[in-house]
Design goal:
Layout lengths: L1 E9 L11 E5 L11 E4 L6 H4 L6 H16 L3 E2 L7 E3 L2 E4 L8 H12 L18 E8 L5 E8 L5 H16 L6
Parallel strand pairs: 1-5, 1-6, 3-4, 3-5
Antiparallel strand pairs: 1-7, 2-8, 7-8
């Protein structure tokens, strides 16, 4: 089984949006043909979901719908019966959410907890990414290994264009999953 984890760093003070430059890396040792077409949303083991997006509760539902829509377009179906070969998870971190740590420290803690083991060379350092970056991680749920990572350094700013940029970034990332 697989786990997809997404980290989104949003900062509402940016006045411009950056061009979407999506990058992906994957574990060349993993056989992606093992995946079936079923996925499920994975429940949090920690309470971090309560710490994020508190000033914009609609964004959680929006992310669920965008990821579901894009996975369905790629032929994946959401499963509720345990038949899924991978799980889907994400993070949304907003600077004004009340999180005590800096965005960088909080994101680093999340990555250490969930992404400590991988065979992907040269993982990007999340501390060097701009706020507004979306990181999509796919993990093997049986081993906990990170097997695929996609990220877009998109400065997601105002509500009026945030949804459009999220749509574009997720669509571009998932278009490269699974790797050829």
């Amino acid at each position: 089984m697989m786990l997809i984890s997404m980290v989104v760093l949003l900062n509402p003070v940016y006045a411009e949006t950056a061009l979407l430059d999506v990058k992906v890396r994957h574990d060349r040792k993993f056989d992606f043909s093992q995946l079936n077409n079923n996925y499920q949303w994975v429940k949090r083991k920690d309470s971090s979901r309560d710490l994020v997006a508190s000033n914009d509760p609609d964004i959680n539902e929006y992310f669920l719908s965008v990821v579901n829509k894009n996975l369905a377009a790629r032929g994946y179906q959401q499963s509720f019966d345990g038949s899924a070969s991978f799980g889907v998870d994400y993070e949304i971190i907003i600077k004004s959410s009340g999180v005590q740590n800096s965005l960088e420290d909080y994101a680093e803690q999340i990555r250490r907890k969930r992404l400590s083991t991988t065979s992907i060379p040269s993982l990007p350092n999340i501390k060097n990414m701009k706020e507004g970056t979306i990181v999509l991680n796919i993990m093997n749920m049986e081993t906990g290994y990170l097997i695929w990572i996609g990220y877009a350094e998109a400065v997601v700013v105002e509500k009026k264009n945030r949804e459009e940029l999220i749509d574009q970034a997720i669509s571009k990332m998932l278009a490269k999953f699974p790797p050829e």
